[in-house]
Amino acid sequence: MNIVRKDIDQNNAIVTLRIEKADYAEKVEKNLRDYRKKANIPGFRKGMVPVSLINKMYGKAVMAEEINKIVSEELYNFVRENKVNMLGEPLPNLTEQKEIDFNTQEDFEFVFDLGLAPEFEVELSKKDKVVSYSIAVSEEMIDNQVKSYTARYGKYIQEDIVEEKDMLKGEILEMENGKVNESGIKLIDAVLTPAYMKDDAQKALFLGAAKGTIITFNPQKAYENETEISSLLKISKDEAKLINSDFQFKIEGITRYHESEIDQEFFDKIYGEGVVTSEAEFRTKIKENIQESLSGDSDYKFGVDAREMILAKFSDLTFPDAFLKRWVLASNENLTAETLEADYPKMIADLKWQLIKDKLIKSSDLKIEAIDIEEYSKKITKAQFAQYGMVGMDDEMISNYAKDMLKKEETYKGIVEKVVENKVFDAVKSTVKLNIKEVSIEEFNKMFEA
Fold first, then answer.
1. Which pLDDT does position 389 carry in this prediction?
2. Angle between helices 337-363 and 279-313 (to 10 degrees)
3. Domain annotation covers residue 124
4. Looking at the DSSP assignment, which residues form a beta bridge with residue 129?
5. Same domain assignment for residues 86 and 112
6. Which domain holds residue 20?
7. Can you give the CATH number for the domain in which 215 is found?
8. Which of 203, 213, 140 is nearest to 442 (CA)?
9. Is residue 41 part of a domain?
10. Do 312 and 397 share a domain, yes or no?
11. Does a structural domain hold residue 366?
């Protein structure tokens, strides 16, 4: 066995493996003996097939299989033992590889192309500058969140006089010539809301009406389309298109949604019993929650800008472009050369960033512990609950949801990748010069506009 590496340039190398009969003969012979023991061939008892016949039937295939195993193992060991910083996987050389014939050859030569990662070191210092945006929490943002909570934790109350957004329940009867049509549509528990009526005149018939009032209105005039009429009268859309008659509606119930009062019961529903005891504390708590949420947006922007700054420092790095394109096409059957050519710049940027991250992880001695993954999954869980106003969740419940999240393989991998990247950016933050800049949420959002 002989392995020789020849560097073509800083990004490409050729590895030649020379295999002689002595390298594989013993293994081939052993495998053929095993074949003989198991072979069921007509005319011979099991295990008694002549060696010459077994060799004739299976010898070349077994030899080819063993040689391929040796090539794969030796190539892998060579890369590992020599710490070859390889990109992708070795590919058969297209020009120097001689034709292989297992029927006539005893010695073989295999030639492979290797794509080599560029050699470089990542050194950051206070000379490197990145803007870190601090998003200001305005009173308007706090007011909007308060309103969101009061709306979410409100309740329905029965009323006596109709307002536009009330839900009315009652009996509805179809009319004909100013009288109830006894054979017409009749519903006992019809429901409507004046706010959904497109016609102001029809809507006005209900506003200010008292419970028990009988109102005559025309659904065809009141509503915008047959879907709404169909829903009100419990008929098909085709039937609804033909409805032109007036209807009586007897108001039997008026339900109105009242936003929550800002009191202790309200505070306890959101943050847990006794956590907040005044409106001032409530607003402070909301501000803290908003700041925590916005810090994630700020971190994301920092990551984008830091990556851009660092990539710019290594704009002169070279890659084995021809090799990589060939390897990517060989690894992805559905990918076309045209698509690859269009996507290649982004692919190289991502590859460059991955190499830089690996350097930063090594130089900063970053470690990813199980607790890091658990804590980040809990952070994600809290954020998801917060979207629905559930900010006072029990720690045990958060932890259980987070553990369930980590049971999904794809989710787990995604969280690990995010934890790694966050640690990398934390290391970058502690090394470079941060230019802190406070901006409004509007100014911040404009940074992401195309």
1. 66
2. 110
3. no
4. 433
5. yes
6. 2-116
7. 3.10.50
8. 140
9. yes
10. yes
11. yes
Nearest residue to 82 via CA among 152, 5, 139, 136:
5
Say if residue 177 is in the same domain as residue 31. Answer: no
- Residues 134, 222 share a domain: no
Shared-domain flag, residues 77 and 167? no
Residues 4-19, mean pLDDT to the nearest whole number: 95
Q: Which among 436, 421, 426, 449 has a CA at the least distance from the CA of 130?
A: 436
pLDDT in tens, 125-162: 999 999 999 999 999 999 999 999 999 999 999 999 99
291 with 401, same domain? yes
Number of domains within the chain: 3
Question: Alpha-carbon distance 145 to 389, whole Å?
Answer: 9
Residue 334 backbone phi and psi in degrees, to 5: -85, -5
Q: What is the pLDDT of residues 385-411, one digit of tens each?
A: 777 667 667 788 888 888 888 989 999
Token pair, residue 218, equals 């025309």
Q: In the block, which residue shows the tokens 């960033």?
A: 353
Residue 121: inside a domain? no
* Assigned token pair, 226: 């047959």
CATH at residue 30: 3.30.70.1050
According to DSSP, the β-strands at 247-258 and 167-176 are: antiparallel
Question: Is 302 in contact with 429 (CB distance < 8 Å)?
Answer: yes
| Angstrom distances, CA of residue 290 to CA of 2, 131, 132, 441 | 65, 21, 18, 11
